[in-house]
Amino acid sequence: MDQANPFTVNYRREIKAGLRDIAPIVVAAIPISLLFGAVAAAKGLSPLEVTVMSALVFAGGAQFAAIETWIHPAPILTLAFATLLINARHVLMGASLAPKVRMSRVQKFLSFFFLTDEAWALSERRAMERPVTGAYWAAMGVVLWANWTFFSGLGAILGSFLGDPERIGADFAFTALFIGLVAGFGRSRVTLVTVAVSAGVAALVHHFIGAPWHVASGALAGIAAAYLAAPEEARS
Q: What are the TM regions of this chain, as residue ranges (predicted)?
């Protein structure tokens, strides 16, 4: 009997590991993606537009922020700036992960389109034991991307039948999720100051100026507050 090719065996093992690690996150992302599709449909986007947006942008937080501030005509520059601020963390995540991934520079450049907070965290954890292979990364990234794209489109279809999510309070679900996440953060002085300043500035700007400027204002205020509240040695 011929022995199995070690490369093929390892390749399959890496794919299985990626699918195993990402599976709980894929399941947890389903209701969030359905909600996004329903909220986007309530804002006037068609199921096709929602699906294309999810496929090309693939950034849940940025997409929710864009939909939350969506008006007609859409303020393209403001939305782009807010998205840049929200996703700026990917620069640091990519720089942290790049040396630990076994891929060429071109492959990293292309495959990091699938970079998410969850994929980054799982890869960093795996890198503590072994290098992150392209097969492992692709299994996680592609499955999570397909899951988000499909179910956000399905959410838009279902949302068109259910009507305005505000009727049943579903529009607040993602806000509630963020509140829960923030509540789980560390209770250090820097964290509390950052959250308080960011929320306060965003609320004031939303009240006196209106959307979508509160998103960018809150983000910038939070960044400034975090820097000023950090210990002096951490800033040097």
A: 22-41, 135-162, 168-185, 192-209, 215-230
Look at residue 189 and tell me if it is in a domain. yes
| Residue 179: inside a domain | no
Q: Residue 176: inside a domain, yes or no?
A: no
Distance CA 219, CA 214 (A): 8
Q: How far is CA 71 from CA 45, 118, 169, 212, in A?
A: 11, 30, 20, 9
Instruction: Determine contact, residues 2/120, Cβ cutoff 8 Å.
Output: no
Strand partners, 132: 101
Please tell me the distance from the alpha carbon of residue 224 to that of residue 147, in angstroms, as a whole number: 35
Give the domain extent around 72: 6-171
Q: What percent of the chain has pLDDT over 90?
A: 25
Q: Name the average pLDDT for the chain.
A: 79
Cα separation, 100 vs 125, whole angstroms: 11
Residue 177 lies in a domain: no
Q: Phi/psi at 87 (nearest 5 deg)?
A: -95, 5
CB-CB contact of 29 with 155 (8 Å): no
Same domain, 82 and 19: yes
CA–CA gap between residue 55 and residue 58 (Å, rounded): 6
Nearest to 150 by CA among 64, 26, 63: 26
Q: What's the CA gap between 86 and 198, in Å, rounded?
A: 13
Mean pLDDT of 52-65: 88
Residue pLDDT, tens place only, 64-89: 878 877 766 767 777 777 777 777 77
- Please report the beta strands in the chain, taking only residues with DSSP state E, as ranges in sequence order: 101-102, 132-133
